[in-house]
TrEMBL record:
Protein name in the entry: ABC transmembrane type-1 domain-containing protein
Keyword line: ATP-binding, Membrane, Nucleotide-binding, Transmembrane, Transmembrane helix, Transport
Entries under InterPro entries matching the protein: ABC1_TM_dom (IPR011527), ABC1_TM_sf (IPR036640), ABC_transporter_C-like (IPR050173)
GO cellular component, one term: membrane
């Protein structure tokens, strides 16, 4: 009981401090991007600053949460593998072989997930840009009676976005299971 209590306390402190660091990293990066975007001319930005502020700083924040997994995960896999073989014996080696055969599949799924994440971001940006264009010219669209055409255009972009998200979530479910 005492060991589990200490473990829980130490882990909660670790996650608390990690969350603080992650939030500070995200806030610092967002402030830097915002400050630089104010100095750049609008045509000079290759990627919209809002995208950088939301997506890329979110990735940096996730890195802060998972940085220790890079070194800690190796020790955990080796330690648990040794315990498995020690307690189960030769049958545990079968489990390790199964784990080894799943690694290439997992790597392929991760690459596919990364590609789908990029596609989802592009689809989302296309939908947001289309919606922004519609909102900027809403008076002319209403006067000409073109609402249905533009609604279909946005719904088509949204359907594309949802399809990419469905594929991404399906692969994510395979990776988790």
């Amino acid at each position: 009981f005492a060991v589990l209590s200490v473990k829980t306390f130490v882990e909660s402190q670790y996650f608390f401090h990690t969350a603080n660091i992650a939030v500070r990293i995200r806030a610092t990066l967002q402030a830097s991007i915002y400050e630089k975007s104010l100095r750049l001319p609008e045509a000079a930005a290759a990627v919209p600053p809002v995208t950088l502020m939301q997506v890329d700083t979110g990735k940096a924040e996730e890195l802060a949460y998972s940085a220790h997994v890079l070194w800690n995960g190796i020790f955990q896999v080796l330690g648990y593998s040794a315990l498995l073989v020690h307690y189960v014996g030769l049958a545990g080696i079968g489990g390790l072989v199964m784990l080894g055969t799943c690694l290439p599949l997992n790597a392929w799924l991760q690459r596919r997930l990364s590609t789908l994440n990029r596609k989802a971001l592009q689809a989302s940006e296309a939908r947001v840009m289309c919606t922004g264009e519609i909102l900027s010219g809403i008076r002319a669209i209403r006067q000409m009676g073109w609402e249905d055409v533009f609604v279909r255009r946005v719904l088509h972009r949204r359907a594309e976005e949802l399809e990419v998200q469905r594929q991404r979530d399906t692969i994510g479910a395979y990776l988790i299971s």
